[in-house]
Amino acid sequence: MGTTVTHAPAMEGLSQDSEPRHGPVKPERPAALKRRRRRENLAGYLFMSPWIAGFLLLTAGPMIASLYYAFTDYNLFDAPKWIGLDNFSEMFGDPRWRHSVQVTLWYVAVGTPLKLIAALGVALLLAQSRRGQAFYRAAFYAPSLIGASVSVAIVWKAIFSDDAIVDRTQKIFGIDVGGWTGDPDMIIYSLVALTVWQFGAPMVIFLAGLKQVPRELYEAAEVDGAGKFRRFWNITLPMISPVLFFNVLLETIHSFQIFSSAYIVGGGAGGNACGPADGSMVYTCYLYVQGFENSRMGLASAMAWLLLVAVALVTAVLFWSQKRWVHYEEGAR
Amino acid sequence: MVNGRNVERRTILKAAGATAATLGLAATTGCGGDGGASADGTVTIRYAWWGAEDRAERINKTIELFHKKYPKIKVKTDFQPYLDFWKKFNTQASGGNPPDVFQNAIGFLRKYDAKNILLDLSEQAEAGHLRMEGFRAGLEKFGEIDGKLLGVPVGSNSMALVIDKPVYTRAGVKPEQGWTWDDYHAAMKKIREKTGRAGDTGPYNIMYLYDLYLRQSGKAFFTEDALGFTEADLTDWWTKAKEGVEDGSYANQKKVAQIKPKSAVAGEISGGEFTWDNFTVRYTSEGKSEYGLAPIPTTDGKKTGQYLGSLMLSASKRTQHPKEVAQFIDFMVHDPEVAKIMGYDRGVPATQAQYDAYKPTDEVNKAIAAYEESLVKAGVLEPITPHPNGADVCESAFLRIGEELGLGKRSVAEAVKQFFTESKTALGT
């Protein structure tokens, strides 16, 4: 990120001038200096130890294990059996797996832009000074605070299910399609609606970015006769493009990882875990089914690693694309 | 951060203490299964089952009763809905920490036996901690596989056509024991014409019904290690099903999916559906109409292929208290008081003592008892066909792919192909 780069020199300066501040005039002997360093390092490691232990036990260890399982046939009960790349070839030949990839790509491609448009749109409205501004900001941010929770997904299901509020409202307008969550073609839209509704986090970041745009640019453009749209297109967008890039990156990665909302809205307890006729079967949902319902942990691990690689690739493409559309201030890159 | 030299020793000690505390905490929460007996000889066993609130209330009452009779055995319960139950059970069992006693069903016996999870209860039966006599209609054989006693039945039920009585009456359809599939299809058409409602939710994704259909012609859904039917058989079954959806004999499948988890019968979308007879209780609490039981249609006018299905209690091979577990199971299946509390919640009680102890007074439960008695009288009951390791995965595939077929997401040929592919993977054939 461009922003971290700008901070780097400042931090160096800090650590440089810190030494003379405490240091006595008489220079320490190298041995004493070494001892002191070691003590400081020890304290540092000690403070970090809960995190290090957690990382090793809960993140690194399982990751290494799952990388190994990805190449095995492992049903949780019997010892894993090495099968090389069979899990991967099985995946590509499985129509259900291909379907889950399609559903996920569609969800990412439709949900992410809509969410960002909503976030930017509301951020533009809230960036202006108005009465009750703090209230509106909090109100729009709130959904993304509670958004990841299971309870919201349950509420969502209740809103979009058969004969619930959305269904009844549609009927008033003579549209009788029934509940969305039980409909294999509609359920994915309710998931998109859920993610769009949770636009608060990118909105706050957009707000911060909008505040950074120098007022003089708008004033100058206005003098030159640029209209509102012109000013947005030629000033606002380029000026906030680093923030936009950050949000696109983050939200895309998030979208790929959608699970709990899909799992709960799509069925969760009872029935098909991935919506009627696999209508909301996103990639992680199928991964879960293979792992926990069919007890095929090896295959599920392989799927997880493939997802990691896919997200890394998409991220790389986004980074590569940024030189075409992301504008950093002079000297900041 | 910068003046690291001034880090006080006390702070470091505190940090170290906090770390130790965190790790210690992780260690205690890490192992939930305490198998040991406490100082006064009280042992604790864990009992897991699937179901909902209503069953939970009943089960808690039976456990209170158990605590009174066996004060030295403490029972800790844990319950989830059906699908979640097995996910949790799998995870616990693979971690070497399954519950000591748990509810089980025929589709899982071989699976968990193959994985060395289930305790052979015959030793406990021989030792006299578990009585295996007094069961109805040969049910004591139900949990026996390869000479091992892997489960003890708590209740029996059988497949039936549960119907919305007023709808069938209005259409003038009166299903009788021994009616054929042709009679049934004609009846469905008649119900649609006379009442405007579908006569049936759609029978094609119910594995247990298809099993009966196959058994009527000497086949079965499963053999001991594979599927007991061919692609041609299934193509035939699913083609008929598709026609039924298209001509309106069966309910609008989209609507059926939309109103889930409510059943289509209770939701007044269809006039009936094939399911376990004790589900009548559930429909009665869900819906407004009056529900009854009709017999399974036949191929030759006689053979229905029916057997008594059953929920069982199984024990974990890793339990440290096999004797207490056996005593608990014995209490649950034999004690008359338990039957009075549970009613027909898990089917009609498996033992004669419990069957006699609970005589239903309400119409619905009376009808279930009468239905099962009529099966015994008609002499249609046969032994169950075994379910191989992997049967549960086949069942959920059958359910899902059948639903996709009904919703028009797949052609019959595609659906059959997909089902066979998935089943072969699950069964390892």
Tell me about this structure.
The complex is a heterodimer of chains A (333) and B (429). Chain A has 333 residues and is an all-alpha fold. Helix content of chain A is 73%, strand content 1%. Chain A contains 14 helices and 2 strands; from the N terminus they run ααββαααααααααααα. Chain A has a two-stranded antiparallel ribbon. In chain A, α4 runs parallel beside α8. Chain A is globular. Chain A starts with a helix and ends in an 8-residue tail after the last helix. Chain B has helices at 9-30, 53-69, 82-94, 106-114, 122-126, 165-171, 181-195, 207-215, 231-246, 253-259, 279-286, 322-334, 336-342, 352-357, 363-378, 391-406, 412-427, and strands at residues 43-50, 73-80, 101-105, 144-145, 148-149, 152-157, 159-164, 272-276, 291-294, 309-315, 348-349. In chain B, α2 (53-69) runs antiparallel to α13, α6 packs across α7 (181-195) and α16 (391-406) packs antiparallel against α17. The interface between A and B is large, with 41 and 44 residues.
List the defining traits of the structure above:
heterodimer, A: 333 residues, mainly alpha, two-stranded antiparallel sheet, 14 helices, 2 strands, 1% strand, disordered N terminus, B: 429 residues, alpha+beta, 6-stranded mixed beta sheet, 3-stranded antiparallel beta sheet, 11 strands, globular
Secondary-structure element pattern of chain A, one letter each: HHEEHHHHHHHHHHHH
Strand order, largest beta sheet of chain B = 2-1-3-10-6-11
Distance between the termini of chain B: 63 Å
Order of helices and strands of chain B: HEHEHEHHEEEEHHHHHEHEEHHEHHHH
Determine the fraction of residues in helical runs of chain A and give it as a percent range: over 70%
The number of helical runs of chain B is 17
The stretches of 5 or more residues of chain B where confidence is low (pLDDT under 50) are 1-13, 15-35
Strand content of chain A: under 5%
Summarize model confidence as the mean pLDDT of chain B.
Answer: 87
Give the strand tally of chain B: 11
Q: What class do helices, strands and sheet pairing of chain B give?
A: alpha+beta
Taking all Cα atoms into account, the compactness measure Rg of chain B is: 25 Å
* Biggest β-sheet description of chain B: 6 strands, mixed
